[in-house]
TrEMBL record, chain A:
It catalyses: N(6)-biotinyl-L-lysyl-[protein] + hydrogencarbonate + ATP = N(6)-carboxybiotinyl-L-lysyl-[protein] + ADP + phosphate + H(+). InterPro entries: ACC_Biotin_Carboxylase (IPR051602), ATP-grasp (IPR011761), BC-like_N (IPR005481), Biotin_carboxylation_dom (IPR011764), Biotin_COase_C (IPR005482), CPAse_ATP-bd (IPR005479), PreATP-grasp_dom_sf (IPR016185), Rudment_hybrid_motif (IPR011054). It comes from Actinomycetospora cinnamomea. One of its GO terms (molecular function) is biotin carboxylase activity. This protein is a component of the acetyl coenzyme A carboxylase complex; first, biotin carboxylase catalyzes the carboxylation of the carrier protein and then the transcarboxylase transfers the carboxyl group to form malonyl-CoA. Residues 2-445 form the Biotin carboxylation domain. Gene3D superfamilies: ATP-grasp fold, B domain (3.30.470.20). This is biotin carboxylase. The lineage of its organism: Bacteria, Bacillati, Actinomycetota, Actinomycetes, Pseudonocardiales. Its EC number is 6.3.4.14. Residues 121-316 form the ATP-grasp domain.
Automatic annotation (TrEMBL), chain B:
This is Biotin carboxyl carrier protein of acetyl-CoA carboxylase. Coiled coil: none annotated. This protein is a component of the acetyl coenzyme A carboxylase complex; first, biotin carboxylase catalyzes the carboxylation of the carrier protein and then the transcarboxylase transfers the carboxyl group to form malonyl-CoA. GO terms for cellular component: acetyl-CoA carboxylase complex. GO terms for biological process: fatty acid biosynthetic process. Residues 1-27 are annotated as: Disordered. Signal peptide: none annotated. Pfam families: Biotin_lipoyl.
Amino acid sequence: MTLNGVLVANRGEIALRVVRACRELGIRAVAVYSDADASAAHVRMADDAVHLGRSAASKSYLDEDKVVEAARSAGVDAIHPGYGFLSERPSFAKAVESAGLTFVGPPSSVIATMGDKAAARALARRAGVPVVPGSDEVGSVDEALAAAEEVGYPVLIKASAGGGGRGIRPAGSADELRTVVAEAQREAASAFGSSAVYLERALQGPRHVEVQVLADTHGSVVHCFERECSLQRRRQKILEEAPAPGLDDRLRESLCSAAVDLAREVSYVGAGTVEFLVEGEEFYFIEMNTRIQVEHPITEWITGLDLVAEQLRIAGGAPLSVAQDDVTRRGASIEFRVNAEDPDQDFLPSPGTVEALELPGGPGVRVDTALMAGDVVPPFYDSLVAKLAVWAPTRDQALARGRRALAEYRVDGLPTTIGLHRRLLDHPAVVDGTYDITTLETWLAGGT
Amino acid sequence: MGSHTITSRTPGVFYHRPSPDAEPYVTQGASVSEGDTVGLVEVMKTFHEVKADAAGTVSKILVENEDEVTIGQDLVELET
């Protein structure tokens, strides 16, 4: 069985990415759009498009019923959720399954398990994958204080139902913890609909390294090596690279095996990413993202795989196109996220009109964007407007290629993070590949 | 008595309340001081509080909850 038609339940560059993969595989691609996106590139390049509703995401891309109904009316047999929006909502995957359609991703039960932090940690322990020292869910301040004594300060208070770096608060001492736990519970209740929180030891300057996995419906699971994603601001990644610089082969092998073990334990299906914190020779599982990642192009660059095509093949019931031994890596790749934000104004979102646009090109350069000259960047959605990913045989050459490509890249009409990336590539820790998850924020705050 | 209009500093979606189940920040007839929050604008998944830039009594809320707003759009009218 292969898919005949896919509803692409997303917008922007990732919608376009999925549309492109569908077209190359001979699958009919149907876009969806809000009022604000009526003439967007992902709509123009799809075979068909269905209007969802008003511009606000809650009235369009986040409306589960409308998206399922769009798929029905378009006569497709599957829905690809992209990333963000409905991609990690178990209720949506369930609704897609109930409608007799194929969800391009894991079963709703797997999304539910991995989306529940405590359940995911328990599962990792069962799979023999190390987790950051932490507690079970805590219901009261006294329980939190007792748990923190065991875990060891400083701790992080995390919402069980949180994700994407949201719902996390630090506490360095018992006094701080007392105040923060109640706040964290209130915030978790209003943001995620559940006040459940747990504690984790706060590591001191770890690196964020994640492993890409692919799993089919026939029981095969492979990893596609790792990505280094430590350059983050407010827990949002801004630059990623593969392979992770300075990671020795033994540690790489352990990380990749752990990711495969975890995927097997949860009977994973599709493309997924297992995220770890790495400190010295130790690594700890933090979460699994049950969808395609923003930064998937760097893995595609170094492995030669087409991860979105693999997702679509897996959803159609086909076995993986590769066995583990066929997945090899070559060279180095770096991705720069281009966000419509003003780094000089504390990253204030900067919707607006693109007056002129010059994209970089040439050898080893890939730009994933749905933004064309004259387009309006609406205020309603994520600020990511493009991804520049470069590849070269060595990391030094990739850095040089990144500098060259960023110098070519011009967006007029609204501020973006392109200039920030140019400066970031001169940072000694970025040049040396010795940065950790504190590096970017320290640098932005005026430090080194 | 004069009147004063609070405008939006950014385009986005205007909210009357901090969260769907919460009470509205202000209602017609409420008195506000300078610096009080009178609404919320969501722009690119980030939330920005709309602050009263004058003191007064709310005479009219000019935008419906969850309506789309443009930069500089009138949001709340005060009697000062």
